[in-house]
Design goal:
This is S9 family peptidase. By secondary structure, this protein is of the alpha+beta class. Helix 6 crosses helix 7. Among the domains are: about 290 residues, Alpha/Beta hydrolase fold, catalytic domain (Rossmann fold), CATH 3.40.50; about 70 residues, no CATH class. The mean pLDDT is about 95. It has an 8-stranded mixed β-sheet, sandwiched between helices. The protein has 12 helices and 39 strands. It is globular.
């Protein structure tokens, strides 16, 4: 490889923390208004291009494989709400697609409509109304993201949010669906989308403070300027962020405010608006809860999913009133090892999202005149799977729309009829070109961490390949925020599997796959468990004959990018290559600066190193940027976006600059920065396929070249 890689000049700056001097040679890269910074980033992009030019044909081949396997003109399974069936459409050659609806013709028929002539071209449904043409909205922009869209309860208005830079600061517009015209209303700098009130005359929305913490809820009356909007709630505690939503029953609006380990809800009863906003239960440090409205045995109640009775949560009932937790009554008691995550309430049943033994479960509680009449799981037979309810916006529905997938089963949409207990497959995501799930095998493996804890691994590969000897494996992981990386299917992944490369997920601590304790044991002063678990998983793949260290590709993004950086420092011999997407690799610097986006809200995840020396020392012991040393690193591809507001581009930029100056093989490090994108990367499906093809080609090259 060429030795002419970019070298960022060292410009030391120092700060004092806990009597210690911390010197940083590359903090100057934070100023993206500085032409020298942009010049360095562009030089890194040029170097990355030069070092990967030989992969152009492979990238093109992978892109064409993804394209050939994807039904480009397609139609999602329609979802019924307020007399209409809503669905999305995609079109060959277009990046974004459209959202549409047709009128429901039979109030008692819950069978979603399908095109009269189901062909490869997927024609429009009869009477189709295009609500949003996303490609038209994206025209003229290098980046486009729909932050959310919602039809008013009256069904005549559509509020939608767009972002055209990638910084997640959305603009909300309102479309009159009877005329197709936009109203004069325009809401700027919105954090996400907006929520209608019950009578379709007002929108509730969220804005963020300078540190990009969602802190205010506003009410906008249609026909008035944004400057006159009512500030409904302002969260002043810097650890908490806010959100707003309306219940399926349409009776209540909720404002939720939460830190990592504490929550508080306010409610507005549209049946009694004069009562105003009321606090359901005052926040208590360490008590997390959420609230849903249900009708059980003819009585309106609040369902409270909370951890006050145990770490894996229980579901309780409470009256429609401010209610202290001493008066919450268990409906589903806390059961160790069964993590209750959420509950959706409908007129005749409840749907509970839970997980047990590392797998997701969907639980149905049927409601009768006297309360819960039955309680059971919706069962599937695969060894590894992910199940969850889909879009179910109608309170009176007898149908549960659910999604199901495995690592070899394409995403599938089912309707479960609670009355008949029949499960009907409505659609399985098409995979063109003769895909057969039986050509692949998937398994659950278990690695043993240094402290003796068994760590699950999900793996998929071409059938029979494992028996032929070690294979290259892409080992993905995240391991933070109790986010679970459950088994899932991916069309782009087939370009790896069909080349004899396996794909595995290391379900490391810090995630939520094995319950709340799994999360607690991978955060704060136990964060090292996340890294040790991953290293143990990589070594298990090698020791059990699935792969060899030089053939294991490590991949993770965001907080998973921090994991990648820590693994590269601590066990560079455990993997053969590292892909770190939008990586949180300068975590200590970020957590020492309360003015940076999201820092204060992250204290309950990582700790506060500025206030606590033990936390400072602990983070300093694993922080990827701090711990770059003069050793031979596996080849690294770091990917970021210039407009990312969650993990700023400067983190991977500094990390790469330090690796260049310190590593024994600095030329093996690449930095790829998207100049018109945000945390989620580029926008548009074709751009996303090209982006993934770039990463996959690099991975393949690392484990197949001599």
């Amino acid at each position: 490889m060429s030795a002419e890689f970019p070298v960022a000049p060292k410009k030391p700056s120092s700060k004092q923390f806990h009597g210690l001097t911390r010197t940083d040679d590359y903090e100057w890269l934070r100023d993206k208004e500085n032409p020298e910074v942009i010049a360095y980033i562009e030089a890194e992009n040029a170097y990355t291009k030069e070092q990967t030019d030989h992969l152009a044909d492979l990238r093109s081949q992978i892109f064409e494989e993804i394209k050939a396997r994807t039904l480009e003109t397609d139609l999602s399974v329609p979802t019924r709400s307020r007399g209409y069936w809503y669905y999305g459409r995609s079109f060959e050659g277009k990046q974004y697609g459209a959202s549409c609806r047709v009128k429901a013709t039979d109030p008692d028929d819950w069978t979603p409509p399908t095109p009269a002539d189901v062909t490869h071209d997927q024609p429009a449904l009869p009477g189709e109304e295009v609500l949003l043409d996303l490609d038209a909205l994206a025209e003229g922009h290098d980046f486009f993201s729909l932050g959310g869209s919602t039809v008013s309860p009256s069904t005549t208005l559509l509020a939608y949010a767009t972002d055209v830079t990638g910084d997640e600061r959305y603009t909300v517009r309102v479309k009159d669906l009877t005329t197709g015209e936009l109203l004069d209303d325009e809401l700027t700098n919105v954090h996400g989308g907006a929520t209608w009130d019950r009578d379709s005359s007002a929108l509730y929305y969220t804005t963020a403070d300078e540190s990009w913490r969602a802190d205010k809820i506003w009410c906008h009356r249609l026909g008035t300027p944004q400057s006159e909007d009512e500030l409904v709630f302002h969260e002043t505690d810097d650890r908490f962020w806010v959100g707003v939503g309306r219940t399926k029953s349409d009776r209540f609006m909720f404002i939720g405010t939460a830190a990592k380990i504490t929550a508080e809800y306010r409610f507005l009863d549209f049946d009694d608006p004069d009562a105003g906003w009321q606090v359901f239960a005052a926040r208590e440090e360490g008590v997390e809860y959420s609230v849903e409205h249900a009708t059980i045995a003819g009585e309106d109640v609040f369902l409270v999913t909370h951890n006050a009775s145990g770490p894996d949560f229980e579901i309780a009932t409470a009256p429609i009133a401010p209610t202290p937790r001493s008066e919450w009554r268990p409906l589903i008691p806390h059961t160790p090892g069964v993590r209750l995550e959420d509950v959706d309430a409908f007129a005749g049943h409840l749907v509970v999202h839970q997980r047990s033994e590392g797998l997701t479960q969907l639980r149905i509680l049927e409601l009768g005149e006297d309360g819960v009449s039955d309680d059971y799981l919706v069962k599937f037979d695969d060894e590894l799977y992910t199940i969850g309810s889909g879009s179910n916006p109608t309170f009176e529905t007898p149908i549960v729309r659910l999604g199901y997938t495995t690592m070899r089963t394409p995403s599938s949409v089912y309707d479960y009829d609670v009355r008949s207990r029949e499960l009907t497959l409505r659609k399985q995501a098409p995979v063109l070109g003769g895909y057969d799930r039986d050509d692949y095998e998937e398994h659950r493996l278990w690695a043993t961490a240094p402290d003796g804890v068994r760590v699950p691994i999900s793996i998929v590969a071409k059938k029979g390949l494992h028996e032929q000897g070690p294979m290259p494996v892409l080992l993905y992981a995240y391991g933070s925020y109790e986010a679970s990386m459950d088994p899932y299917f991916s069309i782009p992944r087939l370009s790896l599997l069909d080349r004899g490369i396996g794909f595995a997920i290391a379900h490391v601590r810090g995630g939520g796959e094995m319950g709340r304790a799994w999360y607690d044991d991978g955060k704060m002063l136990k964060k090292q468990n996340t890294f040790s678990d991953y290293i143990a998983c990589a070594r298990h793949l090698a020791e059990s004959g699935w792969s060899t260290p030089s053939k294991i590709i490590a991949e993770g993004g965001s907080a998973g990018g921090l994991l990648m950086g820590a693994v590269a420092n601590q066990a560079p011999d455990a993997v053969g290559a590292v892909v770190a997407a939008v990586p949180f690799v300068d975590a200590l610097t970020t957590m020492l600066d309360a003015s940076l986006p999201l820092t204060v809200t992250e204290y309950d995840e990582w700790g506060n190193p500025e206030a606590d020396k033990e936390t400072y020392d602990y983070m300093a012991s694993y922080d990827p940027y701090t711990n770059v040393t003069a050793q031979h690193y596996p080849p690294i591809l770091a990917e970021t976006s210039i407009n990312d507001t969650r993990v700023l581009y400067v983190e991977p930029a500094k990390w790469v600059a330090k690796l260049r100056a310190t590593a024994e093989n600095p030329g093996d490090v690449l930095l790829k920065t998207e100049m018109a994108a945000g945390h989620g990367g580029v926008s548009g499906r074709y751009k996303a396929w090209e982006d993934r093809a770039f990463s996959l080609a690099w991975m393949i090259d690392q484990v197949t070249s001599s």
